[in-house]
Specification:
Blueprint lengths: L6 E5 L4 H12 L3 E6 L2 H13 L4 E5 L5 H14 L6 E4 L14 H28 L4 H5 L2 E5 L7 H13 L1 H11 L7 H5 L2 E5 L15
Parallel strand pairs: 1-2, 1-4, 2-3
Antiparallel strand pairs: 5-6
Helix pairs in contact: 1-7, 4-6, 6-7
Length: 213
């Protein structure tokens, strides 16, 4: 395993996508610090990474307010020998934008606005992409959603793909860059076995064919 001097802090890093990101970064030689509410899951995550030769530590926190967030930051800097180079905000939901520019008040207000707008986009993507494989934007750009064989994807695949971009887009994109082939799939596309492909014209609405390079 290669090693480097970087440290990554991953909130929500003891299960699911956060844990997968922690394992992948550890494989790249990055020291990972995972944050979560469940101490047993945190200890298991750290043990798993260390058993594979990686470096990892766990911080127990529910990140329920600004004070707990500052406490996690302080502990992370201590565990990271004075620095944290990578931050993956994977716990709960959050507004889009630079983390350092988001105040506590902005976080709560924007989070409440974020939920209904995300639900609207989620429904929009599921309905149109399952029915035709294309939203309005995809039609303009001659793009289409297909399954891995170039055929119409099933409903489960569309739901997974739409959920990722509606509710977890930053995580969806970052993990796609880390975990998918040639960095060309969002992670929820991969989980749903879907692709976004370029087609020759908007009239090509059925059985698009593609060549995997």
């Amino acid at each position: 395993m290669t090693t480097n001097s970087q440290t990554a802090l991953i909130t929500g890093g003891t299960s699911g996508i956060g844990r997968a990101a922690a394992n992948k970064l550890a494989q790249l030689g990055i020291h990972v610090i995972v944050v979560g509410r469940n101490a047993e899951r945190g200890e298991n995550t750290v043990a798993e990474i260390r058993a594979a030769g990686g470096g990892a530590d766990f911080i127990s926190s529910d990140l329920h307010d600004a004070s707990s967030t500052r406490d996690v930051a302080r502990q992370a800097i201590e565990l990271g020998n004075g620095h944290v180079d990578i931050l993956i905000n994977n716990a709960g939901i959050f507004p889009f934008g630079p983390t350092h520019e988001t105040t506590e008040d902005m976080f709560w207000v924007k989070s409440m606005q974020y939920i209904p707008s995300s639900m609207i986009f989620f429904a929009y993507w599921v309905i149109l992409e399952y029915k035709t494989g294309q939203t309005i934007g995809k039609k303009v750009l001659n793009l289409k959603v297909t399954d891995m064989s170039g055929n119409k994807p099933n409903l489960k695949g569309i739901i997974l793909s739409s959920f990722g971009k509606a509710f977890l887009l930053p995580i969806d994109v970052v993990l796609g860059m880390i975990l998918t082939n040639e960095k060309r799939q969002r992670i929820f596309n991969k989980l749903g076995d879907t692709l976004v492909v370029k087609i020759k014209s908007n009239s090509e609405t059925q059985d698009a064919e593609y060549t995997k390079d």
